[in-house]
Amino acid sequence: MASVAQRVSSRFTGVLSLGVSRGNKSRSYYTYSPEPAQPLPNREPKWTTALEAMQCIKSGDTVFIQGAAATPVELVKAMTEYGKTSGLKGVTVCHMHTEGNAGYTEADCDGIFRSLSFFMAKNVRKAVAEGRSDTIPIFLQDIPKLFHQKIIKPNVALIQVSPPDQHGYCSIGTSVDCVRAALIHSKCIVAQVNPQMPRTFGDSQIHQSHFDFAVKVDVPLPEHGGEPATEVEQKIGSLIAENLVDDGATLQLGIGSIPDAVLAALHDHKDLGIHSEMFAAGTIPLFKSGAITNNKKVIHQGKTIGSFLIGTRALYDFVDNNPSIEMKEVNYVNNTHIISQNPKMTAINSCIEVDLSGQVVADSIGTRMYSGFGGQVDFIRGAAEGFDGKGKPIIALPSTTNKGESKISPFIKQGAGVVTTRAHVHYIVTEHGIASLFGASLRQRAYALINIAHPKHREALEKAAFERLKVMPSP
């Protein structure tokens, strides 16, 4: 019992330079809990400026940053400025996909900060490629374990929340994912309090008494999406919607324009459900038309389940104070056993490259890291293991790159990493058709994949397949 009390009381020790006591070290297990929704007696945050709050960061610390639409951009700016002017050294900054300028990864911050990504966004790719930042290959559902198993030990957490209600409760809003796990194990919490952050239901509640410092802002959340789909993306979306999505299916849709194109083609469907680590604004018309009801679900019936969001202002307004949507921890949402309980679980994800055996590359372009494992494998396997035997794991991609190179290749590029293995793959979809690979031999896979490649590349792929397999591809 004493060891538990010692662990959870650590949040109250350390920084006193701003005149804020972190509480009484003698607090017992019964009067203090690291559970974010549990109020801490007689404790309130210090309301201060973003720059002043950064004084809690010390050399050698590990700082966790909340991500996606909830990225606390003003706190990140202040952290970067403080690091440059205060003499900080050796600070690890860990995070999932974040938005905005990651100034702490620039060359002038080398030695001050080092980014550690669990899933990379565009803002850290250059730093990773140049060796100033790191990335961890990891399934999305496993990220909370990094904190619970003390592999990552955050000293400071920078988050963004909605303003406290009459009971002192805030919402971590659009990004629950691994945030709760990081908060439970962080010694100091700095909250960017923003009235433009939606209040969401599920696992998103945190009482303001857990904040050491709070900073008021009133700024829009980062936005993505809203652009019209290309003709190729529309074709892929239509193929999936018309051939692979059944009425009553539960959908998982990864990030990007292809999942959005699928949503745009689903208006004539009925009783669809959503169980997805993230979802986009394309779901809103389907909710309003009655195509999405979540009525056929056997768990969380009537509820849309997500873990983080990045989208348009319309999406943020839609989820704000909406009890039909629950944002939950990613180790639950992406748990394969939970996923597999959903009826007709249909997982739709995109990728960078597929070879003729069905190996899927989704996190890298050759040796250059691009993103991460994310939830692709979690949901591809969860759909395949569906309790009802009707799940559909789908990988969708345009047949060519913007430069006209085939995305279906004889071999994956040197240095590229396989995210979804050829044993996991069931359906591959391009604008030229659908390849069903489950139960297919290497010869049959090559034949099916060549038939959905761009016509101008099919002859070369057929020759390459023969050289690799010593037999002509055939059905």
Average pLDDT rating: 93
What proportion strand? 15-25%
Shape: globular
Per DSSP, the total helix count is 15
Taken together, the total number of domains comes to: 2
Question: CA-to-CA gap between the ends?
Answer: 64 Å
CATH topology of the largest domain: Glutaconate Coenzyme A-transferase
Helix proportion: 25-40%
CATH class of the largest domain: Alpha Beta
Query: What is the CA-atom radius of gyration, in angstroms?
Result: 23 Å
Q: Strands across the major sheet, in which order?
A: 1-11-8-6-2-3-4-5
Quickly give the structural class.
Answer: alpha/beta
Q: Can you say what the CATH homologous superfamily of the largest domain is? A: Acetyl-CoA hydrolase/transferase C-terminal domain
- Based on the structure given, which CATH architecture of the largest domain is correct? 3-Layer(aba) Sandwich
GO biological process, one term: acetate metabolic process
Protein name: Acetyl-CoA hydrolase
Domain Acetyl-CoA hydrolase/transferase N-terminal: 51-215
InterPro entries: AcetylCoA_hyd_C, AcetylCoA_hyd_C_sf, ActCoA_hydro, ActCoA_hydro_N, NagB/RpiA_transferase-like
